[in-house]
Design a protein that fits this description.
Blueprint: H1 2-10, H2 23-51, E1 56-58, E2 61-66, H3 70-103, H4 107-115, H5 135-154, E3 159-166, E4 168-173, H6 175-178, H7 186-189, H8 199-214, E5 218-222, H9 224-231, E6 239-246, H10 251-254, E7 258-264, H11 279-282, H12 289-297, E8 303-305, E9 312-322, E10 328-332, H13 333-356, H14 365-374, H15 388-393, H16 420-451, H17 456-462, H18 480-516, E11 525-526, E12 534-535, H19 543-563, E13 564-572, E14 578-588, H20 590-611
Parallel strand pairs: 3-13, 4-6, 11-12
Antiparallel strand pairs: 1-2, 2-10, 3-10, 4-7, 5-9, 6-9, 8-9, 13-14
Helix pairs in contact: 2-3, 2-13, 3-5, 3-13, 3-19, 5-13, 5-18, 9-12, 16-18, 16-20, 18-19, 19-20
């Protein structure tokens, strides 16, 4: 062993320099470059948003977009969230790659562990190795892991859409006075006995009438079908006060212009129920505004009961006050500063992983085979065909060291390459995701049933990640930070799911790679190749598996951000004045939750399907230790 042993260990001297253009060093450099690019994007956008005079900043909240339609704001918010999830997926996958390289043991560390009858993992992500590798690499591994937690707790809520909602007054009025030139005398307009209104309601109506008479706002006449369709919204942002024109009516008929009046408060789940026939009189009973809108489009008449009139009256049309939409896309400066700090630390750790790791590590299965063939391990000499059970029960305690018989147990499946603990942890996170999505979906359907139809069509109409008055969590938050942390808690769970799922595939593919040696001639895949060997940038998961896994992770993160999200709505009164009431809570989307639930089940079934595959040839099944 002398010459070979000497040559092997000469490579582990501190003066040895890593080969920068081969193996995992290049892979980690690519990960570091990706992290730096993401850092520049985050810093650049933050500086641009904070210093651009065209944007407003108040209390650390920067308004990126204001004044356009709310649909445009939602579209911008959706694309920004999609971009954020792409960037976070790059950071997550790069972190996982770098951590696996950092946790890979050197030959000297393996020899030291074997001398104490302990083992280390090779070729797979490992927490066990952290207790047996150099402290510097352990510190870098922990730093990369810890910086991932704030990223996934905060990143998705750094940008959010803030909607506006108008409270408004609905007034049923006589036909002749609502036409051009109407309301020449406010006393006539407010004549009669208004038992249905309070004094402040009458004063509000007076101010609304003044605005209409002076044409200080833009008004539009709407047919009944258009009127109900435009006002059948949870948060009305482009319209406000409404006159219902009663057909075949006049002041001589009812001795008053104002036949009825009521206020509609923005953000109430029952905002649109005033359209229904009996709602003003009974305030109870079933009412489905969507059904009413459909009936009016089919040619039915719109009839309602007023509190001042005994019989039903027919509404011939509406006069609607149009307003400017004031939805915004906002950016939280404090959150982005935390994200940038974590991003910076992560990039630095990745760079240090390449610069500071001088001693060659056994990162791939080929590295281990090459090393142990060149310099056999004296502590395991003769232990052919030993399995994990033997290592735990006998070898670890210094008993029964010697050759083991190989017993072929029929067709070997991929799942045999994965330890029970890894299967348990991966399935646990999959089940947590599925159960959490199922509970959220059940709660959402139950709440939807209280205010309308919980069917798939209704869920689809509410959309992905869109705020509505029904799909809001009934919790009170002291500040926006609390809502942000709770809304993004599932993102952290999904990050752990990706890591365990990736680890599962890594172990199975390691066993598959080993079985290929018995199928046909193959060269060793190592990080620092010698003649007759090959190098690769991927560790154990080929790109044909890694890219779909990254895509699945990014898609799950994005859909989760659309399932549970920060909801912020600014409320305006009937006169268009901003009031102190702002809805800051968490919204949810049932249809997005269904997609998350479906993908979670697909991931679980895919893992089981991959585990049931048979190896390429009959050969002893190997693990990673």
């Amino acid at each position: 062993l002398g010459p070979e042993h000497s040559r092997e260990h000469s490579n582990t001297s501190p003066a040895w320099k890593p080969i920068w253009y081969t193996g995992w060093h290049t892979g980690v450099l690519i990960c570091a470059a990706s992290a730096v690019v993401v850092l520049f994007i985050n810093v650049g956008l933050t500086i641009y948003a904070a210093l651009n005079p065209g944007y407003e900043m108040e209390g650390g909240i920067v308004t990126l977009y204001r004044g356009g339609s709310c649909d445009q704001s939602k579209t911008i918010g959706t694309w920004l969230h999609l971009g954020i999830n792409v960037l976070s997926t790059l950071l997550l996958s790069g972190s996982n790659y770098t951590q696996q390289c950092l946790a890979a043991p050197t030959r000297s560390e393996i020899d030291s562990a074997h001398a104490r009858r302990r083992w280390m993992d090779i070729g797979v992500p490992s927490v066990r190795n952290l207790f047996r590798i150099k402290l510097e690499r352990t510190f870098l591994w922990i730093a990369i892991g810890l910086t991932s937690i704030p990223l996934h707790l905060l990143y998705n809520s750094a940008v959010y859409t803030s909607l506006t909602a108008n409270s408004y007054t609905v007034a049923a009025v006589a036909t002749n006075d609502i036409e051009p030139g109407g309301y020449p005398n406010m006393t006539d307009a407010l004549g009669g006995d208004h038992e249905f209104s309070h004094g402040d309601d009458i004063e509000l109506f007076r101010r609304v009438i003044e605005r209409y008479r002076n044409r200080t706002r833009i008004y539009q006449y709407l047919e009944p079908s258009d009127c109900t369709e435009r006002y059948n919204k949870d948060f009305l942002s482009d319209r406000s006060n409404l006159f219902l024109v009663v057909k075949n009516s006049s002041t001589s008929t009812y001795n008053t212009t104002l036949l009825d009046m009521f206020d509609v408060t923005a953000g109430d789940p029952t905002t649109s129920t005033w359209m229904c026939t009996d709602h003003l009189v009974t305030e109870y009973g079933e009412c489905d505004p969507n059904e009413l809108v459909k009936n009016l489009k089919d040619g039915y008449l719109w009839r309602i009961k007023l509190r001042s009139v005994k019989d039903e009256v027919e509404i011939s049309g509406c006069i609607s006050e149009m307003t400017d939409e004031n939805c915004t896309v906002q950016f939280t400066l404090q959150i982005m500063i935390v994200v940038i700090c974590c991003n910076f630390v992560k990039a630095c750790c990745m760079i240090m992983a390449v610069v500071r790791t001088r001693e060659p590590t056994l990162v791939t299965l080929g590295d281990a085979v090459d090393s142990f063939l060149r310099v056999p391990d004296p502590t395991t000499v003769g232990m052919c065909f030993s399995d994990r059970r033997f290592a735990i029960l006998e070898w670890r305690h210094g008993r029964s060291i010697g050759a083991r018989p190989w017993k072929q147990e029929g067709v070997q499946r991929w799942w045999r390459s994965v330890s029970e603990t890894r299967w348990l942890i991966c399935n646990l996170f999959c089940l947590i995701t599925i159960i959490a999505a199922g509970i959220l979906l059940d709660m959402g359907i139950r709440k939807d049933a209280e205010y309308g139809s919980p069917g798939l069509k209704s869920m689809w109409n509410r959309g992905l990640g869109k705020v509505n008055s029904v799909s809001l969590v009934s919790l009170t938050f002291r500040n926006i930070t609390e809502a942000t942390l709770l809304a993004n808690l599932p993102q952290t769970i999904l990050s752990f799911l990706y890591l365990t799922y990736n680890s599962l595939f890594t172990c199975m593919l390691l066993g598959h790679e080993w079985s290929l040696f018995a199928h046909h001639h193959r060269t060793l895949r190592v990080t620092s190749p010698r003649p007759g060997q090959r190098s690769t940038y991927w560790l154990q998961v080929p790109y044909t598996y890694a890219i779909p896994l990254m895509t699945l992770s990014g898609l799950l993160h994005w859909l989760t951000s659309q399932s549970l999200f920060l909801a912020r709505v600014d409320i305006f009164n009937a006169l268009g004045e901003s009031i102190s009431t702002t809805i800051s809570t968490i919204g949810y989307s049932c249809i997005a939750t269904i997609f998350v639930l479906t993908l979670g089940i697909v991931a679980l079934v895919t893992a089981a399907g991959m585990g049931s595959r048979s190896f390429a040839a009959e050969i002893t099944t190997v693990g990673s230790c």
